[in-house]
Amino acid sequence: MEQLTAQIIGFIALIILVVSFQFDNRKIIINLRSFNNIANVVHFYLLGATTAAVLNLISVFRNFIFLYRPKNKYLDNIIWLVLFLVIFILAGFFTWEVWLVY
Fold first, then answer.
1. Which of 29, 41, 56, 66 is 20 to 30 A from residue 15's alpha carbon, by CA?
2. CA 24, CA 7: separation in Å to the nearest integer?
3. Which of 89, 4, 83, 86 is nearest to 43 (CA)?
4. Residues 6+ apart with CB under 8 A from 100
5. What pLDDT, in 10s, does the model give residues 39-68?
6. H, E, C per residue of the chain
7. Residues 32, 63: contact at Cβ < 8 Å?
């Protein structure tokens, strides 16, 4: 049952993603992408894909920063790009389960 629930949530996430590309408003797109990422967090967590769940969770925070970036000079800084790149790399490094796949 958990597998079916995960797939249904993943399908809902896919629908949200496709719908997000139909808008021309930056705020709506970022909000829909955040909902997509939240649905993907649940989807991947239920599937046991920890790395994917963590990376999508980080993306929610990244979306929040980029949503308010035009209104706030502090958020419109290259340091946020570097910070999120480092966070993504570290999260991938510490949550990856199989380092070598044959």
1. 66
2. 29
3. 4
4. none
5. 999 999 999 999 999 999 999 999 999 898
6. CHHHHHHHHHHHHHHHHHHHCCCCCHHHHHHHHHHHHHHHHHHHHHHCCHHHHHHHHHHHHHHHHHHCHHHCCCCCCHHHHHHHHHHHHHHHHHHCCCCCCC
7. no
Best CA proximity match to 93, nearest among 48, 55, 63: 55
pTM: 0.87
Q: Which residues contact 39 (CB under 8 A, 6 or more apart)?
A: 9, 10, 12, 13, 16
Residue 79 token pair: 């340091």
